Amino acid sequence: DTEVTQTPKHLVMGMTNKKSLKCEQHMGHRAMYWYKQKAKKPPELMFVYSYEKLSINESVPSRFSPECPNSSLLNLHLHALQPEDSALYLCASSPGVLGETQYFGPGTRLLVL
Amino acid sequence: AQSVTQLDSQVPVFEEAPVELRCNYSSSVSVYLFWYVQYPNQGLQLLLKYLSGSTLVKGINGFEAEFNKSQTSFHLRKPSVHISDTAEYFCAVTIKAAGNKLTFGGGTRVLVKP
Question: Are B7 and B24 contacting, i.e. CB atoms less than 8 angstroms apart?
């Protein structure tokens, strides 16, 4: 089983709203990732959690706040977003931190009005 | 730092014809190599990967890729495509046995025509 689940599938929010994206995996993977993907572009890495600790933050604006409550769950809290933040947000996980295969979820399509 | 170049941004191909998607990478250290497929409005699905061993790698849906270290390439092939292969294809690398930063190429859009 190589399934990563993400909720919600779609999200529309205003610039003053607070919302959260959720990602879950039950493969025992110890690394989890958030990516942002704009149309017709490859995914861009935002954050990496290794063993439940934030290990990489790719200079993402503070209006995006990641959280890893446990080894199976990864959240992305959104606050005061801008219309240019509209994108597909992908979660991924990998067994460890040595360059192993990353398995992606279906994504959350976010529209900021 | 590593980089990945996918030489074709779009590849139109007729149904049942063969297709090859080209991928070249640049790295000063050994890498792991991956091909992912993204169907419209979906996430990324792993097609195949090269970690070590045989340089010819077989993946899902009839795809295969060959790792060529001297040419730093990892081209993806399928001998006969279907309409359902219409998708975006991404080549990606990570540093072998170190770090977990996945570097993507720009993607190749495959459009299969009947």
Answer: yes
